[in-house]
Amino acid sequence: MSMIKQLFKYKLFLFGAVLIGGTFLASLFYLVFFNDQIPSSPLLYDENGRPLHAPYSGSVYPPFGTDEFGRDIAIVMLVGAKYTIGAAFLISLLRVVPAIFIGIFMQFYLKGIKRPLKSIADSLTYFPITLLAFLLLNWVSLRGVLYEEGAPPSSIQIIIYVAVLSLIFIPLNSVLIANEVELIYNKEFIACSRTLGAGKWRIITKHIRPFLVPQLWIILIREFIQTLILMSHLGILSIFIGGVVFKENLFGNMEPVSLSSEWAGTLGMWWGYLWTSYPWIAFIPIGLITLLILAAKGMLDSLEHMLATEQPVQVERAKKEDDASMAKLAPFQLLRMRDD
Question: Helix or strand or coil: residue 257?
Answer without folding.
Answer: strand
